[in-house]
Amino acid sequence: MFDSVRLTIADFDLCRLNWNLIKKKNISKSKSVIIINYKNCELQIFLSSGYILLITNAHTILNKSNICVSDLKEFERRIKAILDEIILDGIYYISINRLDFHIDVFEQDDMKFKIFMKLLIKHCDNFLYCKSKGKYATSMHLSTKNSGSRNINIYDKYEEQKAKNVTGAELEKWKNCIRIELQYKKMYFKNQYKKYGVIPILENYWNIECFNSMYIDIFDKYFYSPSPYYKLCIAKNIVNNSNLTFTLKKNINKFLGVVNIVGMENIKKYYNRLTINKFCKILIEELNICPITLNDSEKINRLDNLFELAKQNIIKNGYFN
Length: 321
Prior knowledge:
Layout (H helix, E strand, L loop, with lengths): L1 E9 L8 H7 L7 E6 L2 E6 L4 E7 H5 L9 H15 L6 E14 L3 H13 L3 E2 L2 E7 L2 E5 L6 E7 H7 L4 H5 L4 E8 L1 H11 L11 H15 L6 E2 L1 H9 L5 H21 L6 H14 L15 E2 L2 H11 L5
Antiparallel strand pairs: 1-4, 1-5, 2-3, 3-4, 5-10, 6-7, 7-8, 8-9, 9-10, 11-12
Helix pairs in contact: 9-10
């Protein structure tokens, strides 16, 4: 659920920093920025600007795999305990610099996992002001202009760890894992404060309402959830057996065939936005078919929607507890 966290620490007295500890831990060669790794946190101390960037991960701070809404107070308590060792008088202000949400989907069946990865490439690479800078066999990465406020990352966690030279049991535990991740950056929180007066502190974002609006609602749209993926010929058969008009059946089946070949991004070259939205609305809301289909050559006829599997993990792992 909650993953990487970056916090800005400001309004403190540089003279009240624990310089004995800082000098021992400093790994930076810069004269203007001090960097220390301390108790599962990286602290970047910007001397001229007078603030600290704290980079950490909720999992390592709390020493647990599933981070829940109810973990906020304990997370804040542990972060404060660490900062109180760095800023000796305990006077400072904490705001959010970046907050990541993610859910992992483990698919035990190798064949289904490979199909999910092939289907992923057919999803949009231009979505909610986020654009892809390139497509890869094992990942999809979308970001706002100049990586400004939001990043969408969907990727094979095993391959990501392997690229980081992780080996052995630590690597194998990520076998057939698809991570669905949304990163919110500093600009997002600035905009929310400017437009709506939402103060960028953890308690205003570490909650069920924000997880639903900032993560669930977005990926529901991206994955056309809850509609399952069908083999193309079966999807067409469902359309043919529906109560739609003959002409609409013909046009939607043609649309499905083109999407199967070119994907949801390139379909924009063949259909205008209104037509795409109309056909997708009928497929998803009336027929419960994802517009992205399996190739007829696949050995299985149907796959659950990937994000529906992710949402099942929310219940299974008690994220909202």
